[in-house]
Amino acid sequence: MADQALAAKAWPFEEARKLLARVEARKKAGKSVEGVLFETGYGPSGLPHIGTFGEVARTSWVRHAFETMSDIPTHLIAFSDDMDGLRKVPDNLPQPEMLAANLGKPLTSVPDPFGTHESFGHHMNARLRAFLDHFGFRYEFYSSTETYKSGRFDDALLKILASYDKVMAVMLPTLGEERQETYSPFLPVSPRSGKVLLAKVVARDVATGTITYVEEDGSHETVPVTGGHCKLQWKPDMGMRWAALGVDYEMYGKDHLASAKLYDAICRIAGGMPPEQYMFELFLDDTGQKISKSKGNGITIEQWLSYGSPESLALFMYQKPRTAKRLYFDVIPKAVDEYIAYLDAYHSNETTEEQRLENPVWHIHAGVVPDERYPVSFALLLNLVSASNAHNRDVLWGNIRAYAPGASPEANPGLEKLVGFALRYYEDFVKPTKVFRAPTDQERAALEDLAARLDALGDERDSNAVQNIVYEVGKAHNFEPLRAWFGALYEVLLGQTQGPRFGSFAALFGCAKTAAMIRSALAGEFLK
């Protein structure tokens, strides 16, 4: 498997090979290699979201690819920047007045508005860990507050202090003229107010490891830069963290790309080697605008999982991570069916081991791919619900069993979940948009012909045989191009502009039932 992985072209393997090269370079330089460290970062001022899932999932796929190639131990840190000051009151949280009274304080010093944990930061960290645990990610949790206070960052912070001018030379060109006047990489935690202050530093003492800054009342205060008495601004913090922890690999969104050189420079100043990095594109909403947590444009992970499986979401995250993609409800059915198609291809007897390593499902399931099959697709189920007016699982399963006699909720638990997704998605997104139209004279003649031929097929369940009949009818009635014939089938019979292979639908629904549906449409019943 390791040899095959070394030649695999899937993007997680390409990233893993960069780490192998990094390890080899370290060995050649005479440095020990005890393990490889992956990191993902999280800002706990808001709840974990769909982007959090994507970042951790993608990093985990690279980690697993590396583990397939090498026996070097790996670790994944989920780092929470919970020492950051609360800069604004998040929307839709309880006790906004209490939160407003604690603005500026580290998130782990702000009381928990939910009343369940010792602080707001601890509450959000618990939510993050529950979120990651729910999806089965392997990780080690790091709290910024705890790491700063433990002294883990002290050596790197003292190096930043000793090289203060170098850090300023990196940062100042990126700031406006007014901000340059007061900027310091160090944010002191005021011993008076407890706030994380954006304060002007007026003196620094490398020998004692301290800075002197201007307090909110204009007086001067001296504090150590170590032991959690200061934290770094977020850009220097990223580079310092890489150096202090020895991070080997980190992913980030395109919005970090402009700052990547700054992170690298600070990491080197702090005595570290910048990690291998991977930039992924951001998601767009249904209008093509960048998704923003504050705007709420887009969909949440809970909304996706109401209509599609976790595996379908993982596949959406896996595919083309460096391409901006629309993340909205209408992408869910396609992602579900693509997952089913990849799963079928993985288990095909004609698929080689090399091809399996290139298949997204191998990465999504960390090499342990479930053996379940899906005799019907999500798109077919949606149209079956539409045609049969089925509103419960029993009716749908009756049609499924007639089409695939061995199928059952017990034998196909994934399909059982898919039935529930289809019922919910149809009611919320398909049914409200259905618009039926009357057939043209040409279409009416063709539909009458198709109904008669379907009746003649009886209990035929071979979708290819049924599809051939559909093709023959379209050609016989001179549809040019032939896709106009299929467009007519969807618009007249299903009230939709597109759908699955009509032969597959008719075989699943039943040829006689499909013929009866056609005659109902021709009688104008769907237009009422």
The assigned structural class equals alpha/beta
Given this structure, which CATH class of the largest domain is correct? Alpha Beta
Question: How much beta, percentage-wise?
Answer: 5-15%
Helix amount: 40-55%
Give the number of helices.
Answer: 24
Average pLDDT confidence is: 93
Task: Give the overall form.
Answer: elongated
The beta-strand count equals 12
C-alpha-based Rg, rounded: 29 Å
Low-confidence stretches: none
N-to-C span = 61 Å
Strand order of the largest sheet: 3-2-1-9-10
* Largest sheet, strands/sense/barrel: 5 strands, parallel
Q: Structurally, how many domains make up the residues?
A: 5
CATH homologous superfamily classification of the largest domain: HUPs
If classified by CATH, what would the architecture of the largest domain be?
3-Layer(aba) Sandwich
Would you tell me which CATH topology of the largest domain applies?
Rossmann fold
